[in-house]
Write a structure and sequence with these properties.
The complex is a heterodimer. Chain A is an alpha/beta fold. Chain A contains 18 helices and 12 strands. In chain A, helix 2 (24-34) crosses helix 8 (178-201) and helix 8 crosses helix 9. Chain B is an alpha/beta fold. Chain B folds into 2 domains: 14-218 and 345-401, 3-Layer(aba) Sandwich (Rossmann fold), CATH 3.40.50.10540; 245-334, formyl-coa transferase, domain 3, CATH 3.30.1540. The chains are: A alpha/beta, B alpha/beta. Strand 12 of chain A pairs antiparallel with strand 6 of chain B, so a sheet runs across the interface.
């Protein structure tokens, strides 16, 4: 039962009808769920969210659509309704739900909801206050609208992949689907803004998010460098410039929102793939700090390195010296020594480090342990901000397929037991010949 | 002043932004969404005005494109917070604010006499959002930071880089100031949620947003792989860091551009379409062989299939590859440079992805990318402010009515 504090989550009382799947949409609704919304995830067990079939516990022998771990982390705090949207009765249930919800979210290709007879105009006719948020590759309008993207391809089209790498090499791109995550964030921001607006006007909003546009908006000042100054990036070999912010000739290569030298990742003791420490010296005071940290009587004493401008020119030389020092120490030791002297520095932390070694994450309780009905006690990622007035940790609830059908049909929609029974017997709420815990033969990853 | 038109969901919300660089993207999101965002600057201008690139590559406080990007739709007010007069003005502004965005170092505004605990006595509905590198507590609370350092600490850097033959072994940080973007998004989310909560409550609240926490939960698969399988991920060129080797997907095309040819989700239908396509130009090699027709067999021969795709790419321009693959429902895509976006009418003519904004120095119009939740809702961006452009206006209004919290 919800405590009094629980009732005060910002979105308490908001209900979201969630047809989204994969990563972007579910990221959006995960955040909205932690903020207090009731998220009803709608699927049909014959075409479930593909993330249900990805990443099982290491020694899992009984893989099902309900015990995928990546899915559990991404969909914590949500409910599950199973419904056949390809049936007339299924569509009728959806229409009834639209009347009872505040927000509808989906990440289908552009025409799907219209084919269901549930375009924005029709949704508004059912519920004038409805907020309809879609996340797709190119958006629901324009010549590319029917083209498909995944996180990595959206990153490529939108210019982001190109802007990551080392001069002279092919683009290094991004080691995860940043635009799935960021589209989820901007989707959540859009829904929140629309809810804020609705309090004043009573009117709903149509939010048509394009993953590629999310990328375009996040490239940063480089986009303006072209749009305003006409700087061309095609065929350039100096941009993006690896881990630097400015090239030795003074040209901006990092668009990082800060500038200075040295700026790089330096190998440390151990020699493993993540035994590096990132160091940025942003001003002359920090340079003096670095000198103190490495001790006197060394190359760093030379006055010709004392000014930012000169350090930028001499980056290659400084890097060569700095490596000799970092190589003798463990990465957290380099970080601690430099930070003790006010120099921005951090061990390159890998996911294992975040989970096991990072004292900051530990102290702030970012990772929470919850009891999952199929997985037992496991760790989950928590919310990256705290609010003094409300708890925000994910609630221990997961969309076990069909688990909330009765709740939704009876308590939300007020259907009779008879009606609920007939929806089940006509296979509107569960497919024929599919077991209640459908097995997964091959894990996606 | 030219005012933007369109979807203004945060109109009437007054935000005071104190910032050293980390919180200005959050402020921009609120400003473009219609909030009145008053940015407090030092007389010499806040540091982000010193970073390039600059308009026409000529340095100047009002010419920094870095500043422009993060400060659209805001007002700039110069206050000297070390003087009693400046501090009084800041306090007065805070008393009338809906939201304070505090992107200063932890405790810096407290020390100046702008403590949340004091401010809420006079403005109980205030939403105070502190955006910091590592959060308000914990052993790293006071650590110095930069974009690169934040990406390293948060785990982002460890998943980005190359397979060894393609580039150096060390992690490679993407450009663009993404640490600030990520925390900007989470902070904006928190602030708007608090504004919604505030409508039902008598009190505002204090929000503690950490860039470190924000990045650490934004990496998709890496942390779950460790949580649930105790496996570590390895960096790969332009694709996901994964526990083991995965098929390559970035290929160079005949025009010199790269193509991301995702080999994921190639089901039997898509594979048949691919073989037809390659075969129509005599380049399907042995992929017509029956043994490749089932997903199970293909999985074992993926490296070979990828090689065939690579040879086909090398013989075609990236645009041909993009349209040809998408027509066959293969979600492949060219690796565009930022300039190439502006040559695509999907974004410039049909979608209104960009809006024209006239800068304060040259008066010339430039294309600014809109925030994605505002695309299609009219023009949401007005130009970034000149240093101190709104000082007199805002101070005069303070004298007049002491500022007012008009929202809700």
């Amino acid at each position: 039962m919800a405590t009094e504090k629980e009732n005060k989550r910002p979105l308490a009382g908001i209900r979201i009808l969630d047809f989204s799947w994969s990563v972007a949409g579910p990221t959006m609704t995960r955040y909205l769920a932690s903020l207090g919304a009731e998220v009803i995830k709608v699927e049909w067990p014959e075409h479930p969210d593909p993330m249900r079939s990805a990443m099982f516990l290491r020694d899992e022998t009984n893989k099902t659509l309900n015990n995928g771990t990546f899915f559990a982390n991404l969909n914590v705090g949500k409910r599950s309704l199973t419904l056949n949207a390809r049936s007339t009765r299924g569509i009728r249930v959806i229409r009834d739900l639209v009347r009872k919800c505040d927000v509808l979210t989906e990440s289908f290709s552009p025409a799907v909801l219209e084919k269901w007879g549930l375009g924005f105009e029709q949704l508004k006719a059912l519920n004038p206050g409805i907020i309809y948020a879609s996340i797709s590759g190119f958006g629901h309008t324009g010549p590319h609208k029917d083209k498909g993207t995944w996180g990595p391809t959206a990153q490529a089209i939108g210019g982001m992949t190109f802007m990551s790498g080392v001069p002279g090499c092919q683009p290094a791109g991004w080691g995860w689907s940043y635009l799935d995550v960021a589209s989820g964030y901007f989707g959540a921001i859009g829904v929140l803004a629309a809810l804020h607006e609705r309090r004043r006007t009573g009117e709903g909003t149509r939010l048509d998010l394009s993953q590629v546009e999310v990328g375009i908006s996040l490239i940063g000042p480089a986009m303006l460098d072209h749009a305003v100054n006409g700087r061309s990036f095609v065929g350039q070999t100096v941009v993006p410039g690896g881990n630097r912010s400015v090239a030795p000739n003074g040209q901006v290569v990092g668009y990082r929102g800060d500038e200075g030298a040295p700026s790089g990742v330096y190998p440390t003791l151990g020699g493993g793939p993540n035994d590096y420490c990132a160091i940025s010296v942003l001003d002359d005071r920090q340079w003096q700090g670095l000198k103190s940290a490495i001790g006197g009587g060394t190359w760093a004493d030379e006055a010709r390195f004392d000014k930012t401008h000169d350090r930028i020119t001499a980056q290659d030389e400084i890097d060569g010296h700095l490596v000799e020092w970092t190589m003798t120490k463990e990465k957290y030791e380099v970080m601690r020594l430099l930070q003790a002297h006010g120099v921005p520095a951090s061990a390159v932390q890998c996911p294992r480090d975040l989970a096991e070694h990072d004292p900051q994450i530990g102290a702030r309780g970012l990772h929470v342990t919850l009891e999952h009905p199929r997985l037992g006690r496991q760790r989950f990622e928590g919310m990256p901000f705290r609010m003094s007035g409300t708890p925000l940790d994910p609630t221990p609830q997961w969309p076990i397929l069909g688990q909330d059908n009765d709740y939704v049909l009876r308590d939300v929609l007020g259907y009779s037991q008879e009606e609920i029974g007939s929806l089940a017997s006509e296979n509107v709420t569960w497919p024929k010949n599919v077991p209640t815990e459908p097995r997964v033969e091959r894990s996606l990853w | 002043m030219v005012t933007a038109t369109g979807f203004r969901p945060l109109r009437g919300v007054r935000v005071i932004e104190f910032d050293l660089g980390i919180a200005q993207f959050a402020g921009r999101i609120l400003a473009d969404a219609g909030a009145e965002v008053i940015k407090i600057e030092v007389a010499a201008g806040n540091t982000p005005r010193n970073f390039g690139p600059f308009l026409d590559n000529r340095q100047g406080k009002d010419r920094s494109l870095n500043f422009w990007y993060y400060n659209t739709s805001k007002q700039s007010v110069v206050l000297d917070l070390s003087s009693p007069e400046g501090l009084d003005a800041a306090r007065e502004l805070a008393a009338g604010a809906t939201v304070i965005i505090d992107g200063m170092e932890v405790g810096q505004l407290d020390a100046l006499g702008l403590r949340y605990e004091d401010l809420k006595v006079v403005n109980p509905r205030l939403v105070y959002c502190a955006v910091t590198a590592f959060g308000q507590d914990g052993p790293w609370r006071d650590y110095a930071t930069s974009d690169l350092v934040q990406l390293a600490a948060g785990g982002l850097l460890s998943v980005c880089g190359y397979d060894e033959p393609d580039g150096p072994p060390y992690p490679v940080a993407p450009t663009g100031g993404q640490s600030r973007h990520i925390v900007g998004m989470t902070a904006a989310m928190a602030v708007i949620a608090a504004l919604i909560a505030r409508s039902d409550a008598d009190e505002g609240q204090f929000i503690d947003v950490s860039a470190h926490d924000s990045i650490a939960v934004s990496l998709e698969m890496g942390v779950p792989f460790w949580f649930y399988q105790q496996r570590e991920v390895v960096r790969h060129t332009a694709r996901h860091a994964m526990p083991g080797p995965t098929p390559r997907w970035q290929h160079r095309c005949a025009d010199g551009k790269y193509l991301l040819a995702l080999p994921l989700y190639i089901d039997d239908t898509r594979f048949a379409a691919l073989v037809d396509w390659f075969g129509s130009e005599g380049m399907a090699e042995d992929l017509t062989d029956e043994k490749y027709q089932t997903a199970g067999n293909r999985a074992g021969a993926m490296d070979h299939i990828i090689d065939v795709i690579g040879r086909f790419c090398a013989a075609h321009d990236s645009a041909t590859m993009f349209h040809g693959s998408q027509a066959r429902r293969l979600p492949w895509a060219p690796v565009n440079a930022p300039d190439e976006i502006l040559a695509d009418p999907h974004f410039t003519a049909h979608r209104h992805t960009f809006v024209e904004v006239r800068d304060s120095v040259s008066g010339e119009p430039h294309l600014f990318a809109q925030l994605p939740f505002l695309v299609g809702q009219g023009d949401a961006i007005s130009r970034p402010p000149k240093l101190g452009e709104h000082t007199d206006l805002v101070k005069a209004a303070l004298k007049h009515d002491g500022g007012s919290d008009s929202a809700n």
